[in-house]
Design goal:
The complex is a heterodimer of chains A (about 180) and B (about 170). Chain A is an alpha+beta fold. Chain A contains 6 helices and 8 strands.
Chain lengths: ~180, ~170
């Protein structure tokens, strides 16, 4: 369990899956995410089973009073290069734009840099998802490139932005604040 | 290292002169060829082990085994294992050279932070070789193993990435 200021990150459990399915099938939640609904409960159970055998890792995001509001995950963890790709979904829409996602990512970054000793954490965001990009920039992530027409969604090719935070950025940020 | 190198390991680990100073790592003691094939298969498939055969440059003669074991990817550390299996290759600095090449691989290619080893405290030749390669003594395992009728100590030595440069310049 990783404690943040507004949220805690905990292991995902099978009982969380119905909430995930509900969020993934809400077009407003996934409009900028790399998820392709419709997805069934069975799809989700297969994904959960595959996760148990993988280096990928997903945490459920709970508010401090125990309400499940989203999840955040690690993919392509590479120990030699000491880098990892992260992704986040806040599924409960009343928690949008209130700092819950920011706190979840900041908590995760602390774990990745200070406990796992990683050197680079990166993510890929839809260029149109300006709210999310603003949140990542607030956390110190830097835009490092545009992936042109990286994704096809709702009838159009869309650009993605790749952003990253390096260990040295994280240490500077912490010694500064 | 490949499966066919099992023959070399079988030969070396059935030679009492080789086993004498290894600190009773007797998992390797007098094993049959079948068992040696199994051992090598495990060494080749494991994500936490990486072994190489040491060859002489001038004639590609196989002289020993070196590798990293118990590779801890999260903490970037691993245990060094080395055996010079051909007795006529002892005392010529081949072990030190092989260790330097392996450390280069560990720190420069694999991005490890710490390489450690265990050595029998009566194996003076090995200890001075490790010191020469830049390893620091960090602890003593009291009565670590039973050898020649008594419990003997073993030492733990290590080298960190930031210490490694000094060694390659030497």
């Amino acid at each position: 369990m990783l404690e943040g200021r507004k949220v805690r990150l905990r292991a995902i459990e099978r009982v969380d899956l119905p909430s995930f399915v509900k969020w993934i099938n809400d077009p407003e939640v996934t409009q900028f995410l790399e998820l392709n609904p419709p997805m069934s409960m069975e799809d989700e159970e297969k994904w959960f089973a595959s996760l148990q055998k993988s280096d990928d890792k997903v945490f459920s995001i709970d508010t401090k009073d125990g309400k499940l509001i989203g999840n955040v995950g690690l993919m392509r963890l590479n120990w030699k290069d000491r880098c990892v790709l992260i992704g986040i979904m806040i599924g409960e829409k009343e928690y949008w734009n209130r700092g819950f996602g920011t706190d979840a990512i900041e908590t995760l970054l602390g774990y990745l840099f200070d406990e796992l000793g990683l050197n680079r954490v990166y993510l890929i965001a839809d260029e149109r998802n300006v709210g999310a990009i603003h949140c990542y920039e607030k956390l110190g992530l830097k835009k490092e490139g545009l992936l042109r027409q990286n994704r096809y969604k709702n009838g159009v090719y869309t650009n993605d932005v790749e952003m990253s935070l390096l260990r040295q950025d994280w240490q500077e940020k912490r010694s500064g604040s | 290292m490949q499966s066919k190198d099992s023959w070399l390991l079988h030969k070396w680990f059935n030679d009492q002169r080789i086993l004498e100073n290894l600190g009773a790592e007797h998992i390797w003691f007098c094993v049959s060829m079948d068992r040696e094939f199994q051992t090598v298969d495990e060494m080749l498939t494991s994500r936490t082990r990486r072994y190489f055969i040491i060859q002489l440059l001038e004639d590609s003669k196989d002289m020993g085994l070196i590798g990293l074991d118990k590779i801890d990817h999260r903490n970037a550390s691993a245990e060094l294992q080395i055996v010079i299996g051909e007795v006529d290759c002892w005392g010529k600095g081949f072990g030190s050279e092989a260790i330097k090449v392996l450390l280069d691989h560990a720190f420069v290619s694999m991005n490890l932070h710490r390489v450690w080893l265990r050595v029998a405290d009566y194996n003076d030749r090995a200890i001075s070789c490790y010191e020469n390669c830049g390893f620091h003594l960090e602890g003593r395992l009291r009565h670590d193993h039973f050898h020649k009728g008594a419990f003997k100590d073993a030492l733990i030595m290590s080298i960190l990435k930031e210490e490694y440069r000094g060694c390659s310049d030497a």
